[in-house]
Write a structure and sequence with these properties.
With about 550 residues, the chain is mainly α. It is about 45% helix and about 10% strand. Strand 15 and strand 16 form a beta hairpin. The longest helix has 30 residues. The mean pLDDT is about 90.
């Protein structure tokens, strides 16, 4: 070693001893010139490394260090085998960490710093062999537990060595451990020493930079001491950027603080942003993005509010068996079944973004814009004791249970608020429930296919009705009479379906047109004939003169 710890050339070095490596460059150059040992002299800009914190240039020194060998005890092979048995999210993380382990040199675990966890090792001054004695190690461990790691520097060597060894024969290492060694050991003292946890961990999750850091050091330590990885799976995510895709920094003033988001939007919006982002890539956050997620949140919240209102006074006696339900309700439960499977699968694979999209689209497209819209009449105007209304409320009870339990890990405060609003039992939190599980009998691909076709046809009809509304012919879809010409396949699909109910109009006339082949239906919209029922607002022939109610509404009122 020619350079001492303080950056000064050793005093026993001829000519240059005692000079400062960095600050005495000119003097060193003069001495070299005097002895005809200097080829050239000048200044240039170069990429010589500097300390990122102090900005001072770095000096490379050759000093003794402590290493963990990658080959002596087959640590590399053990680690590579462990990685092959670990699940990675996303999968490419496995290739990245595997490549690092394949190419890495021995692990230098010592650092020459004034702070840190010491390498508590005694070295024999004559043989330079580390002292291996369990009694000494036990005394070190006890001292660290009592007084902290600084005990190594504060207590004399004799305290640890005891009467068995002469302190003059041993040198206490003053180096500290690589900080990655510290973090890499958390699997041991966190998982193994707590009764409520277990080893190995089910999942390690951190940013993509930890392939080189925490994931890496944890793997090596665990494989070296326990023969396997400390985790069954590893999940990595990107970094949080501003909404323009820039790295957040104080100088740019583009930092989005979580606490500020919580204060302005609420914790559930921040949580919704997390699942609404594709964490495999870098995640963007900003005011506009949060406002967009607030809109999505309101749709989810409004779905739960609608269900709470629709289920007022619902009881177990009202439930209808699946086989007795109308086909529309059976289709909804088929969708619940499909969604239940997907959410379970995506949860196990940590595909949070897909869970979010599936639930949001289900609430917005399947429920709000379709099922709830159609069943509004049944819910508000049918006889409460009718099978149709009971079926509707039975399905809505299932929807409430499924949505609240599916959403509980995502928008936890809203899910609990909805749950307590309905059940009012603080001991029975939604967070003590498991995911709602659909029954096998609900899944019916034929019903799913049929109602997908009906929805396509419905969109054609509703578009035609909307055109008439824009023209001023209609004020409401319930004023419409829909005339349909359909090919044979379409007639088969639509037969035995309550079309006025599905199209939310007052009358539907369907005729077969064999000349239609690729075009499934032709639609014409006219005004329905008759008067407007004052209760359900449908336009029907029986409402005229002094008769204000349709036959259905009159019957319902008489029964109640």
């Amino acid at each position: 070693e020619t350079v001492s710890d303080n950056g000064i050339l050793n005093s026993d070095l001829p000519l240059l001893g005692g000079l400062r490596v960095l600050k005495d460059n000119e003097i060193i150059a003069d001495i070299m010139s005097e002895h005809n040992a200097l080829i050239g002299r000048g200044k240039l800009n170069h990429s010589y490394p500097h300390s990122w914190r102090s900005k001072a240039p770095l000096v490379f020194r050759t000093t003794p260090q402590w290493f963990i060998s990658m080959t002596t005890n087959n640590l590399r092979d053990t680690s590579l085998e462990a990685l092959s048995q670990t699940t990675f999210y996303p999968p490419q993380g496995q290739n990245r960490l595997t490549k690092m382990i394949e190419d890495r040199p021995d692990w230098c675990i010592s650092r020459q710093r004034a702070w840190g966890v010491p390498l508590a090792i005694f070295v024999n001054k004559k043989t330079q062999e580390p002292l291996r004695d369990q009694d000494v190690i036990d005394r070190i461990v006890e001292a660290f537990k009592t007084d902290g790691a600084d005990a190594w520097f504060e207590k004399p060597s004799s305290f640890f060595l005891g009467s068995k060894y002469n302190p003059d024969d041993y040198e206490a290492v003053t180096d500290i451990a690589d900080v990655w060694f510290d973090s890499g050991s958390t699997h041991s003292f966190v998982l193994e020493e707590r009764d409520d946890l277990f080893w190995p961990a089910s999942l390690y999750l951190e940013g993509t930079d930890q392939h080189r850091g925490w994931f890496h050091s944890s793997l090596l330590e665990s494989c070296g001491t326990r023969g396997r990885a400390p985790y069954d799976a590893v999940l990595t995510h990107g970094f949080v950027l501003d909404q323009q895709g820039r790295k957040m920094s104080k100088s740019l003033g583009n930092i989005t603080a979580p606490q500020k988001v919580i204060n302005e939007f609420g914790a559930d919006i921040l949580r919704l942003w997390v699942v609404g982002s594709d964490y495999y890539d870098d995640l963007r956050i900003g005011k506009e993005i949060l406002i967009r997620h607030s809109d999505h949140y309101r749709r989810l919240r409004n779905t739960l509010r609608y269900l709470l209102g629709a289920l007022n006074d619902f009881s177990e006696n009202e439930k209808i068996n699946f086989t007795e339900m109308p086909e529309l309700e059976q289709w909804v439960l088929h969708r619940v079944s499909e969604l239940s499977e997907k959410i379970q699968e995506n949860t196990e694979k940590f595909n949070l973004h897909d869970i979010y999209l599936d639930i949001h689209n289900f609430c917005t497209i399947d429920l709000s814009a379709f099922y709830f819209d159609i069943r509004k009449d049944t819910l508000y105007c049918e006889n409460p004791s009718s099978a149709e209304r009971k079926s509707c409320r039975t399905v809505m009870d299932i929807l409430f249970q499924s949505l609240t339990t599916w959403l509980a890990p995502i928008i936890c405060f809203t899910a609990e608020e909805a749950w307590q609003s309905r059940y009012g039992d603080q001991e029975n939190s939604v967070h003590l429930q498991t995911y709602f599980q659909a029954k096998k009998e609900w899944k019916n691909s034929q019903i799913g296919k049929k109602w997908s076709e009906i929805r396509e046809l419905r969109s054609v009809v509703t578009s035609s009705i909307e055109e008439k509304r824009k023209e001023g012919v209609l004020g409401s879809s319930l004023q419409a009479k829909v005339l349909i010409e359909a090919n044979e396949d379409t007639v088969k699909v639509l037969q035995n379906v309550n079309l006025p109910e599905i199209f939310i109009c007052s009358d539907v006339q369907m005729d077969l047109n064999k000349n239609l082949s690729e075009t499934k239906i032709k639609v014409k919209v006219d005004l329905a004939s008759g008067g407007k029922c004052m209760r359900c607002w449908k336009v029907v022939p029986e409402v005229k003169d002094n008769i204000e109610l349709c036959n259905r509404c009159k019957r319902v009122l008489e029964l109640n």
